Amino acid sequence: MNPNSPRLIALLSGPDQKGLVAKVASWICEREGNIIHADQHRDQEEGVFFQRVEWAFEGNRSAKVEAAAFRDFGDSIGMRTNVAIPGTKPKVALFVSKANHCFHDLVLRWKAGDFPCDISLVISNHETLKSSAEWYGIPFEYVPVTKESKSEAEARQLSLMRSYDIDLVIMARYMQVLSAIFLDTWSKPVINIHHSFLPAFAGAKPYHQAHKKGVKLIGATAHYATAELDQGPIIHQAVAQITHRNSVQNLIRKGRDLEKMTLAQAVSWHLENRILVYENKTVVFD
Q1: Residue pLDDT, tens place only, 88-117
Q2: Pick the residue with more confidence: 4 or 107?
Q3: What is the per-residue pLDDT across 220-265, written as a single tens digit (0 to 9) for each?
Q4: Residue 39: active-site member
Q5: How many Å apart are CA 74 and CA 113, to the nearest integer?
Q6: How much is the pLDDT for 245?
Q7: Marked catalytic residue, from 72, 230, 257, 286
C-alpha cells in the first residue's frame, strides 16, 4: 500500500448483529482498502455495537467519493455512520471569559502542531484576552452578554460562527450558559470544561462547594454541552487528591492544571475522531 494513499476514519454504532466486523472488513478489502487500525466495543446491557476503523485505499476514487460510499454501506447494515477524512482541518472557535489558562494551553498546543485543526476565532464576553488573541494572530470578537441582551448576543455569536465557517466550539472556561435555542440552532459539537468531577458540584463555584463539603478529591470534566447545564455526555475526567489543609485558593490552583489537561485530551480525541455519543454517554476509542 502506497504510504500516500488516501485514508478514511469511520465511526459506526447500532444494534449488534452477527458478522458486523467481517462485513466491514470485507467491504474495505473488496474496494482495494487496507485496514490500519480497528477497535470495537459491545454494550452488553443494551446490545449496541460500536466500532472505529481507519483504512487506506487505492484506486482512482477520491476520499469524498469513498466516504460517501461507506456511509451508504453503513446504512445498508443498520449502522449510524460517520466518516472523516484525515488531513481535513476543522475550524474551531474558542469561547472565553476572563480566565486564561485553558485558552493559552489550547492555543500553544495548536501552535505546536498537537491539534489537527484551525483555531479561526475567539469569542468573549470580556475584552480581557483580546490582546493575547491578537498576539497569537487569531481574530477576536467581543460580544458582551447580559441577562437582557443574551438572545441578541447569541444571535451575534451564531452569525460570527457562520461567517467564519466554524465546525467546533470549545468553551475554554467561558462563564456563560449557552441557551437551548443557541445549541439547537448551532447543531454542531460544543466541548465544555467544568471545574469539578461531574456529576458532583455542577453549576457555579464548584471549588467552594468542594471545600465546604470537605472532599478528598477534586476533579475536572470535559463534556459535550447540552441544554441541561453540566449534564452533557462526558468525554474525559481527571482528579487530584486534596486534604483538609487545602484552602479554596489551593483547590483553584490545583484545579487549573486538571482543567487544562482534561480539556486538551478531550479536544484531541474529538479531532482524531475517537468519540461516539450514545444515550448521553460516550464511547472513546483511545
Answers
A1: 999 999 999 999 999 999 999 999 999 999
A2: 107
A3: 999 999 988 878 999 999 998 888 888 888 878 888 999 999 999 9
A4: no
A5: 32
A6: 85
A7: 230
Instruction: Provide the whole-model pTM.
Output: 0.92
List, in order, residues 6 or more apart from 121 with CB less than 8 Å away: 91, 92, 93, 94, 138, 139, 141, 160, 161, 164, 166
Instruction: Give exposure, 208-246, as e/b (b: 16+ Cβ within 10 Å).
Output: ebbbeeebeebbbbbbbbbeeebebbbbbbbeeebeeeb
Asked if 186 and 155 touch (Cβ cutoff 8 Å), the reply is: no
Q: Which CATH number fits domain 91-284: 3.20.20.80, 2.60.40.790, 2.60.40.1120, 3.40.50.170?
A: 3.40.50.170
The grid cell for 49 is: 455495537
Look up residue 97 and give its three cell numbers. Answer: 471569559
Please tell us whether the domain made up of 7-84 is placed in CATH 3.30.70.260.
yes
**CA 57/CA 174 separation, integer angstroms:** 42
Residue type, 7: R
Q: What is the DSSP letter of 87?
A: T
Q: What are the grid coordinates assigned to 79, written together?
A: 449502522
Classified as helix, coil or strand, 32 is coil
